[in-house]
TrEMBL record:
Record's protein name: Mannosyltransferase
Similarity comment: family membership: Belongs to the glycosyltransferase 22 family. PIGB subfamily.
Its membrane topology: Multi-pass membrane protein
InterPro entries membership: GPI_mannosylTrfase
Pathway: Glycolipid biosynthesis; glycosylphosphatidylinositol-anchor biosynthesis
PANTHER family reported in the protein's UniProt record: GLYCOSYLTRANSFERASE, GPI MANNOSYLTRANSFERASE 3
Any Pfam family hit: Glyco_transf_22
Keywords from the UniProt entry: Endoplasmic reticulum, Glycosyltransferase, GPI-anchor biosynthesis, Membrane, Transferase, Transmembrane, Transmembrane helix
Protein localization: Endoplasmic reticulum membrane
Main location per the UniProt record: endoplasmic reticulum
Length: 650
């Protein structure tokens, strides 16, 4: 059973002195269990509604992993190998666990079956399928907020104001609004991690001299440990780097580095802990292995493949290198935004200055102090380890954000609130009075502006262009809107010929940096054939070899500049539409109905089709759609509007 340090503080001996008035106040503020249960349900319900709205409001593109590591394999699970899903090299070489896409694949399949039974028309079904993953992820996002509040309540006490501050911080954090409802594996990993930390038996950190009871004796405490370990194991299987968090928790729990008091972990407790780690780990591993066997069709162990390709073969650096201080200078500031000063203070107070963080100086119990120190030390351990790895992304430390909120909550509260009674500390229960209101208003305004801009106006075109293409396909090919090969809209010979012709048409060609848009999760229809530039890594080259250093993927070759400083021309005439051998002036390669690209490629396209080598192909470019893509973009290749040009073909 989990310990509620602040709630139990009045009923157990304390190492630190506590005033009679504080004890009386803690006893008088205890609530009836039914009131607490109703409060928990209300909070969860509100968070579910809030994140549901959040998911509907996120209309922008962030990173391709949101789609290609989750929704494309999920689409393949739901609608089959011939559904047109784009499975990247990571899935072809079994680097990813199938557990994450399995969630969305099951939801896709169930929703489509229900809509088919209800005989909804195809465009409506397509719209639902496009929006569905975000709505599913909103449930996980709400649970992440919920367990952040619950863990803060476990540490500070349910009657304290600090857990409510932590809840407000996670709700008002722009990063959370921008990313928590996206279908990243990191987003699910974050929820699994904070839920596992909530169920972790923090009683293991108590001072054995003060509380002589043996931990993990009750069945409820063991069940809580099992829930924690199982959730943690799933998180590790999804993202192997999550293991660093649990190694940190175990190290600081068992060895008690930086912690106060005598250890309560005797050999019998250590045996129970080890036994449950093995049992829960094997249970989660068994589920994962069976899932991967069913998905890949053979036995596979993705964590090993992930380590082999990313560590042994050093393929992660193919997607970018960052300096060692990236997480300190950019990662944590991006996660916490305007709450950064309070997060830094929380980290400093709990982990970098142990001599100044003794329970007697903070008003916390030894157990509370030890929990906060373990969390902060684990956070720093993970950041230090990941900083050694060359390839870095903010998402990789996303699971640490709830911990940062909890560490910063008490200092945020103390800065912006004063207690109603002069003798009552701000973190205690009861009403408070706000101070620094202008500063608080500015802080919240910045958060709202950031969240609004990023979710509505920063890179919306990669999503809206697919809505245009899908809608236009529905208009042009109303008889090719099936998602199942078993469904045949036309049984007459003429209809079958027309459908075969439509399925062979290259509807859209994307001349953009690879994975600049989602794919089948938004294009939906298997008959809507499209092609995009690829960026497969050099799998068959050795680390440090000349072949590895000089390797250029398809997108790199397209954007490679020639001797005249132009890019794209050599690629178009040499790879996309090369000359047919023996036929002077004739070029091979299929011409699409539409070409999609950012504004910067329009000049080279017009030169190629209207003045250059492709002038005899009969292509006459015409803008048929264009979408604004934000005020700025960090990648020059994605600058300007996203445009769809009609080719006059089809």
């Amino acid at each position: 059973m989990n310990i509620k340090p602040a709630a139990k503080a009045a009923s157990q001996p304390r190492a630190e002195a506590e005033t009679t008035k504080s004890k009386s106040r803690a006893q008088n503020t205890k609530r009836h269990p039914e009131v607490l249960s109703a409060q928990v349900k209300d909070i969860l319900s509100v968070l579910l509604v809030f994140r549901f709205i959040n998911a509907l409001c996120v209309r922008t593109f962030f990173q391709p992993d949101e789609y290609f590591q989750a929704l494309e394999p999920a689409w393949s699970i739901a609608f089959g190998a011939d559904s047109g899903a784009w499975l990247t090299w990571e899935w072809q070489h079994q680097l990813r666990s199938s557990l994450h896409p399995l969630i969305f694949g099951a939801v896709y399949k169930a929703a489509y079956s229900l809509m088919t039974w209800l005989q909804f028309f195809a465009p409506f079904k397509a719209g639902i399928l496009v929006a569905l993953p975000g709505l599913v992820q909103s449930v996980f996002a709400a649970l992440g907020d919920f367990y952040t509040w619950r863990l803060a309540s476990e540490i500070y006490g349910i009657d304290s104001n600090v857990p409510w501050t932590a809840l407000w911080m996670t709700v008002l954090n722009p990063w959370q609004w921008y990313c928590s409802t996206r279908t990243f594996s990191n987003s699910l990993e974050t929820t699994l991690t904070i839920a596992a930390l909530y169920y972790w038996p923090w009683e293991l950190l108590k001072d054995a001299k003060v509380d002589k009871g043996e931990p993990l004796r009750s069945s409820s405490s063991l069940n809580s440990l099992r829930a924690s370990l199982f959730l943690a194991a799933i998180a590790v299987l999804l993202r192997p780097t999550n293991l660093l968090i649990w190694l940190g928790v175990l190290i600081f729990t068992v060895l008690r580095f930086t912690l106060d008091g005598a250890s309560a972990i005797q050999p019998a407790v250590l045996f129970k802990l080890g036994r449950e780690i093995v049992i829960c780990g094997l249970a989660a591993l068994g589920i994962s292995v069976v899932s991967d066997r069913l998905y890949f069709g053979f036995w596979a162990f993705p964590p090993y493949k992930w380590l082999y390709f990313n560590i042994s073969q050093s393929l992660a650096v193919f997607y970018g290198k960052m300096p060692w201080h990236y997480y300190l200078v950019q990662g944590i500031p991006l996660l916490t935004t305007t709450f950064l000063p309070f997060a830094l203070i929380g980290l400093y107070k709990t982990s970098l200055s142990f001599s100044h963080y003794s329970p007697s100086k903070t008003g916390l119990t030894t157990l509370q102090s030890n929990i906060l120190r373990t969390l902060s030390s684990t956070l720093l351990l993970m950041i230090a380890t990941l900083s050694v790895i060359s390839h870095k992304e903010v998402r990789f430390i996303y699971p640490l954000l709830p911990i940062l909120h909890i560490l910063a909550a008490s200092y945020t509260l103390n800065f912006f609130a004063v207690p109603s009674a002069a003798s009552t500390p701000p973190g205690a229960g009861g009403s408070v009075t706000l101070r620094h209101k202008l500063f608080l208003a500015n802080l919240l305004s910045i958060n709202l502006l950031l969240a609004g801009y990023l979710s509505l106006f920063h890179q919306p075109a990669p999503l809206s262009v697919l809505n245009f293409l899908r809608s236009d396909f529905e208009r042009l090919h109303p008889d090719s809107l099936s998602l199942s090969l078993d469904e045949q809209p036309n049984t007459n010979t003429g209809g079958q010929k027309q459908q075969q012709q439509q399925q062979q048409e290259l509807f859209a060609l994307f001349l953009t940096p690879c994975h600049s848009t989602p794919w089948r999760s938004h294009l939906v229809y298997p008959a809507l054939h499209a092609r995009a530039l690829t960026c497969e890594p050099p799998l068959d080259t050795a680390p440090g070899s000349v072949e590895r250093e000089t390797y250029l993927d398809e997108a790199d070759r397209f954007y490679q500049k020639d001797s005249e400083g132009r890019y794209g021309v050599d690629f178009l005439r040499g790879e996309m539409w090369p000359l047919i051998v023996g036929e002077d002036g004739q070029r091979g390669g299929e011409v699409p109905r539409y070409i999609v690209g950012f504004e910067g490629v329009e000049g080279l396209l017009r030169r190629f089709f209207e003045e250059g080598e492709g002038s005899g192909m009969g292509v006459r470019l015409e803008r048929v759609w264009e979408g604004w893509n934000g005020v700025f973009n960090e990648d020059w290749r994605r600058g300007g509007r996203l445009v769809v040009w009609g080719t006059g073909r089809g």
